[in-house]
């Protein structure tokens, strides 16, 4: 039973790969780095490969080649990707690179000239071509060439559902639009078909992701709805699974989602993951972000008025170029007023190609660390007080993992990997991952809760 705090970087995800090989079957390994959007790309690549007769290897030694799906969000993430490529080369020797860092092939081959191929983000066909060249398929027509069930890199009871690709924002610290292009939304029908298949396969929670979820469908010239995300959320909620919305920018039309979240029968969880990034208007302007922090507080108050049980999560950047102590103090004061439920933070890092690197007055590393420490102390105090207020309440939770000492669960206010847990450490032996159970909260910590099973 592991406890929080979780790693608060927004660009990390964990892939869970099970071995699906038959004897003599060509097999491919996968190292999936980066955000859940990249995890979905990894799932699609592996699903296509399995449909062509390849096995999926859970280790380097058993793979005929390894795909490394990289992240290029931050310089530290790039370094992590290069390390992962180097490890795969050392352990296996035959490596194909894809993902966001693949948009910089010279950067990769300069560090690792032995890689077999480099492809950019969501270039599925080029990845498959590289695999075919390195490891020709050899399917068993009686076993392999059937309709392949989708490969999932998450536990079978929840799944990420990517609804669009790319982004139209021009934030100075981000190069995602350069790597993944402008916003391109998937058709409503295609998203619903995928969601229906996931729920039919036993998925209990759909984690809706994109680079800008609230902008979904606004790239359609002939759209009938002014805000297609509202209709999509409503239809997804009708499938009977939890629907959790990630990466929602605070456009005015977000308020149209709140009535759905306030209705327990809608299936749309009262949870908003909104990247506010900062609170001082001057810092936000230097970021090329909306600089209306005061109006954001008004929106938060309205959301909570209309949906009192809503959980608000956000991530922030400290130490952005030009950030003064006064600007940072404004952020702390804003946090005290906003009282967000789930708060993550990372220190600003230069990213090659990002316009923010050319800004003046970069903050010294020791100052960034000090501000991060102070920010997280404030965030922890807010989290601890909010969780303490839940002691004695009853709530529904989703079981993620059952071990000898406890069942690890999540409330409606907790997303996988990035938020807290609720632990049941008595009477949990008969539970299974994917169960929805009602608990009474008995104890609270800084990020986690403990509870006991109750009746329905």
Automatic annotation (TrEMBL):
E.C. no: 2.8.4.4
SUPFAM superfamilies listed in its UniProt record: Radical SAM enzymes
Stated name of the protein: Ribosomal protein uS12 methylthiotransferase RimO
Function as written in the Swiss-Prot or TrEMBL entry: Catalyzes the methylthiolation of an aspartic acid residue of ribosomal protein uS12.
Chief location bin: cytoplasm
Positions with a binding annotation for [4Fe-4S] cluster 2: 167, 171, 174
Organism of derivation: Oceaniovalibus guishaninsula JLT2003
Record carries keyword Iron-sulfur: yes
Protein's cellular compartments: Cytoplasm
Radical SAM core domain location: 153-385
